[in-house]
Design brief:
Layout lengths: L4 E2 L6 E2 L3 E3 L4 H14 L3 E4 L14 E4 L6 E5 L2 E5 L4 H10 L2 E3 L10 H6 L16 E7 L5 E4 L8 H4 L8 E11 L2 E10 H6 L1 H6 L3 E7 L4 E9 L12 H5 L7 E7 H4 L8 E9 L3 H16 L7 E6 L14 E9 L5 H13 L3 E2 L9 H4 L6 H11 L8 H7 L3
Parallel strand pairs: 3-5, 4-5
Antiparallel strand pairs: 1-2, 6-7, 7-11, 8-11, 9-10, 9-11, 12-14, 12-15, 13-14, 13-17, 16-18, 16-19, 17-18
Helix pairs in contact: 9-10
Keywords: Ascorbate biosynthesis, Oxidoreductase
Protein name: FAD-binding protein
Pathway: Cofactor biosynthesis; L-ascorbate biosynthesis
């Protein structure tokens, strides 16, 4: 009997028809071919951190945990197995003198899962993790092992860098890395109005900057990271002149260390999350409405915080930052508290300002609402049909999302 699958937060639970953990690409290709011949389905799954229902399947849930680690390095490019967890990958890259350009708050994920759902960190100069993907190797719905890179099947690269697991099982990823370096992390609290007034300066004078807004206190916590070797002695943060004239808490230097140990944060408290990516120019008006709505309607049940980050524009077809500088708003809620009414109310606001949902988090949109938000939506659908003509990887949620049902 197949065992149940439960995601990190506990909000997604189902029992697939079977589980599989192939040790190599040949075993994976056999799984795909058998599924195709029998008319059943496969769904690749990463670490289970996502709360999206995309992995729900009555077919075989395929884990790449046995296909992890670094395969090879060519200068500042490194090829890794798709099942590599970000934490272990960071250590391996560090040992090789390398680092990923940017990371998100969580290192629990696999690299294939993180890039397939558009995981991101923060920083106006940095795209999401998928922008670091130089090429992929995947097993398609016909059982073919296909290379997609600037020199092979390049027309598929804008689809394959962020694919939702719809094009095939990504077995290998080639990443653009860079020489390793250390970051200095700092944090302090400030009134929310002050933070909003100085947000552009904070974003552009720090390598990485984000902030939490706490609805219960109506205060913010500002977090900055800068390269340790670029930070002059005595310069505590980028917006020093503004800070000198404003009441603020004593800044704390939290740590100095390599990127893979400094950027991700421990997440012992489980939570649910909705996050929308907004055109940067729409952020101020959207956040003002979000803040007002939470204070007036949801403050009594909001147990946690609202996170604001930035992402650079890119050219990846299903990227939430496609063709526009992006500011994100994420509402977090403890798993022990109700979230759906709160999140749906926030989603209605986000949509009014052209927001695009994070693929790995809660949202309630279908293809009808999504297609107008992504100029290459139909191009991606054509790529999916080309690589998986029999719908081997088409889960019910993915079918509804792509309007294939």
């Amino acid at each position: 009997m197949s065992r149940p699958f439960v995601n990190w937060s506990g909000s997604l639970s189902f029992t697939p028809g079977d589980h599989a953990a192939p040790a190599d690409e040949d075993e994976l290709r056999d799984l795909v071919l058998r599924a195709r011949e029998s008319g059943t389905h496969l769904r690749p799954v990463g670490s289970g951190h996502s709360s999206s229902p995309l992995v729900r399947t009555d077919g075989t849930l395929v884990s790449l945990d046995r296909m992890a680690g670094v395969i090879g390095q060519d200068g500042d490019q490194v090829t890794v197995w798709g099942g590599s967890r970000l934490k272990a990958l960071g250590e391996s890259l560090y040992d090789a003198g390398l680092a990923m350009e940017n990371l998100g708050d969580v290192d629990y994920q696999s690299i294939a899962g993180a890039t397939a759902t558009g995981t991101h960190g923060t920083g106006v100069r940095f795209g999401n993790l998928s922008t670091q993907v130089a090429g992929v190797r995947l097993v398609t719905g016909t059982g073919e092992a296909l290379e997609i890179s600037p020199t092979s099947n390049v027309d598929l690269l804008p689809a394959a860098r962020l694919s939702l697991g719809a094009l095939g099982v990504v077995t290998q990823i080639t990443l653009d890395a860079q020489p390793r370096y250390e970051l200095r992390r700092r944090a302090w609290c400030a009134p929310v109005d002050w933070t909003l007034d100085h947000l552009a300066e904070l974003q552009h004078t720090n390598r990485n900057m984000d902030f939490y807004w706490y609805p219960r206190s109506d205060l913010t916590q500002i977090r900055t990271m800068n390269r340790a070797d670029d930070l002059p002695e005595g310069q505590m943060w980028g917006a020093r002149r503004a800070l000198e004239s404003t009441p603020w808490s004593e800044p704390r230097e939290l740590e100095i260390g390599p990127t893979h140990r400094t950027i991700p944060q421990n997440r012992d408290l489980r939570f649910e999350e909705i996050e929308y990516m907004l055109p940067a120019e729409a952020f101020a008006a959207c956040f003002a409405e979000v803040r007002k709505r939470i204070l007036n309607r949801h403050r009594r049940i909001v147990g946690w915080r609202v996170l604001v980050r930035t992402i650079a524009a890119d050219d990846i077809w299903l990227s939430n930052a496609y063709d526009r500088p992006t500011t994100t708003i994420a509402c977090l809620q403890n798993v022990s508290l109700p979230y759906e009414e709160y999140f749906r109310d926030m989603e209605a606001i986000f949509r009014q300002y052209g927001g695009r949902p994070h693929w790995g988090k809660k949202h309630w949109l279908t293809a009808r609402e999504l297609r107008p938000l992504f100029p290459h939506w139909d191009d991606f659908r054509q790529a999916r049909r080309r690589l998986d003509p029999g719908g081997v990887f088409l889960t019910p949620a993915l079918a509804r999302l792509l309007e294939e049902a």
